[in-house]
């Protein structure tokens, strides 16, 4: 009997199963169990366990913890390169274990193959693994290292930094911690795992989270408080993101930035749960969301919220994104329009914009405070008409650049000179985008009837491509002007109450509007790619 088929909520297409998932990263060896030793076939198969070391920790709001693994720089110039594996683990302190501490364990295939450690009063543990060793055996020298940070339940710290050259980093689902100045995680070749299915007891309360890898994958669930920045050069990013409440004493936008060079980006916020809820603001809290998804040759697949700005860009990868606008019910007359932009060269684009959630958003730091908010979102607002961008100048988001990891306030990660997500939701592989927008998705429909929604009057958007096709679906509540232009691609603009104002043959162009033309603006531009825009129901 065939198992029941799962369907992609964006495309409506069947989800293809990937490779079998590895063991659950949220359940490494239980407390009291020794670090596992499973050397590869190229390693000498002998086993030598070193005595574990413990480093006492103090948890307080003014204390920080750093665990850094790097390679010994003064290793012999000749010899075998040691194969190093293992984990940096952060988890809750268990009964029967030593007090708050870092437990350090090493197992290798030779007693001489040890690790140097340095511990200082700033609660920084520096682990130096050997790069090369004098070796006479025919098989390789190998070692496994594990450093476990045992955290008391509900503990507080100023900051935590985890950095590894060869090791993976694992945040375990029993953790409960508060970090005032953020969490930083970085690896060179290791993967980063956080829990996929998050229990109610799990707490990672950090207003700012930064995760960076060079070639490792980043997999799991993360909270979005004020800043969640995840970056990998060649690794994939697969993440569930849980938006959190704004901090009333210091309201800041919720900034989501995911970036890769050649890796794929897959990110999911709980849009389906918000759509099905009678109180969607309890699922996606009311605040200003700024979203940036950026890759060079990888694909982007996302379900994300945005308020003032959203950008999705790729050069050769496909873009498939479902956006949920979170709009302030008290829109200011002088506030800048929310902006949404997608851009690719040869990749295809599929975008669906849901009907917005109308909420009361607290003023954020730096926000305009000059005029009394309007109480009625259905009341027309005078917004100046801005020139529409030409196809070869589809803009990046003004004022919202992607901050490279290692820049800005995040400069402390020292850069020296298996990937699956099957438990919570399956990785959606590349798919034919031809049906991406037209597929039925009843579970994603808004709980409030369309006729009860105020018109969507506040969005400036652009979609650009060179040779890739674009298929876009905007909600029926959208009103505004459409400008589409292409050199040789087909242009298809349609939807109930959409009026075609004019067409041009060279370059091909369509000028259309729906409702009040001065409200929203959307521009489409391509060289040879086809362009399809559907607003609301098709006629």
From TrEMBL:
It comes from the Eukaryota. It holds the Pfam family DUF4097. This is DUF4097 domain-containing protein. Residues 181-351 form the DUF4097 domain. Residues 1-43 are annotated as: Disordered. InterPro entries: Toastrack_DUF4097.
